[in-house]
Amino acid sequence: MTSKAEEIPKDNPETPGSDADGVKLQQIRFSPEEEAVLLAESSELKLRANKLFGSTKYLEAIQEYDKALQSCPNYLDYEIAILRSNVAACHLKLGDWKAAVTAATSSIESLDRLSPPGTGKTHAEDSVNEPHSNDGATKKNPPCTTHIQRIRAKSLMRRARARCELGGWAALQGAEEDYKLLSEMDNIPPADRKIVQSQLLSLAPRLDAAKQAEIGQMMGKLKELGNGFLKPFGLSTDNFNMIKDPDTGGYSMQLNQDSGSSGSTSK
């Protein structure tokens, strides 16, 4: 049996220490009565957002999740992590990969504050065997490690997918790191584990290709810059060779004597 705070929409959305722009918010502790009212309001907004997600109204769902985040006390990291993960799922549906990465990362950061990876415990108490059935995982009634790991896995899957879609060397490196973390988790469903294994196999050549492409782009920009400097002297970068030092692995630039220094212009 899961608590309402852990309920998620079908088709996998899952869904504040800091706000959506990463601005650190001051933590204000409410009385148990005030906290319960705010959490009930947040949960109601989340359920409304879940229904919008199920109806493929992803932009409207994001708006409702944002309202739920505004109502939720910003020290309830577990509830915040679920909402942020839900927002990430919406952005994935919309193809907004950067926003999905941001939301999923925020979700993971909330979980890390609650239970750092690898500790097997929450900051509030040791892990327990049964989930709590109240409306929220409050300080008095914290979530169990199993639930935290479940949300962490979903957020990692979403961030990894968004990073893969983004492409580029840095994003693909991040995706590989996420999938490696997921491969070490023992709570991954079989279908997700197949995706993780498949992505780890396919990422290696993609990473190499992205690395070579970005190096090529960087060298092209450096060549263009160098040609700008050399043009007044009747030279271009084609008049120089890059020589690799076998001992240090570094490179030095030497004038190509065969090409001559006269009559050479930048292309």
Summarize it:
The chain is mainly α.
Structural overview:
The chain has helices at 32-54, 58-71, 77-94, 97-114, 145-166, 169-183, 190-230, and strands at 240-244, 251-255. The protein is mostly helical. Strands 1-2 form a two-stranded antiparallel ribbon.
Q: How would a textbook summarize the main sheet?
A: 2 strands, antiparallel
List how many beta strands DSSP finds.
2
End-to-end Cα distance, whole Å, is 70 Å
Order of helices and strands: HHHHHHHEE
Q: What kind of oligomer do you see?
A: single chain
Strand line-up of the largest beta sheet: 1-2
Rg over CA atoms: 25 Å
The dominant shape is elongated
Give the mean pLDDT: 78
Low-confidence stretches: 1-8, 14-18, 122-136, 260-267
How much strand?
Answer: under 5%
Give the tags.
267 residues, 7 helices, 4% strand, elongated
